Amino acid sequence: MLRATSELLREVGLRAMTTEGIAGRSGVSKATIYKWWSNKYAVAVDAFLSELMAESPDPDTGSAHEDFRSLVRGLMHFYRGPSGRVFAQLIAEGQSDPLVQKELREHLTAQRRDLMQAIWHRGVARGELRADVDPGAAVDLLVGAALYRLLLGHALLDDAAADSIVDAAIRGFALGD
User: Fold this and answer.
1) Can you tell me the distance from the alpha carbon of 112 to that of 72, in angstroms, rounded to the nearest whole number?
2) Where are the domains of the chain?
3) pLDDT tens-digit profile of 57-86?
4) Please, are residues 100 and 41 in contact by the beta-carbon 8 Å criterion?
5) Which superfamily does 42-173 belong to?
6) CA distance 133 to 141
7) What is the C-alpha separation between 173 and 17, in angstroms, rounded?
8) Which pTM value belongs to this model?
9) What span, in angstroms and rounded, lies between the C-alpha atoms of 89 and 76?
10) Nearest-10 Cα torsion for 104, 147, 129, 54
């Protein structure tokens, strides 16, 4: 069902996608969809979360710098593909629809923030990162730069850009030298 939702989002867009279309494409009933999700936006957010987790899982390499690099590279890859354009539509829809904004915040960004904060805490525990930096602010800096590029299209969403963003942030977050 999530794959069908992702396909429909790319084919017809967020506003034109319907619960009926999801049901038809996936072969499940509308009742089944509504048993698990409150509306099409909730299904869309879950579809994006599953794609994003595939693009950018928790790497846990033993290095906060490398973990953040891997995650931000995964975000950039996700954002520059067809799903990125649809994700930008979801964000735009959330600006005028509190329900969409709530779905994004509670079911997509909260999980990603939790993952990035876990990386942060591992880095602090290993002595790589400063304990006096707010983890939420650190995550906002890392993700915000990538999201800004997605929404405004002013700069590339490639691995080099991801590395540059992470390297600059880590220089400010790191202990030592």
Assistant:
1) 11
2) 42-173
3) 788 999 999 999 999 998 899 899 888 888
4) yes
5) Tetracycline Repressor, domain 2 (1.10.357.10)
6) 12
7) 42
8) 0.81
9) 16
10) 60
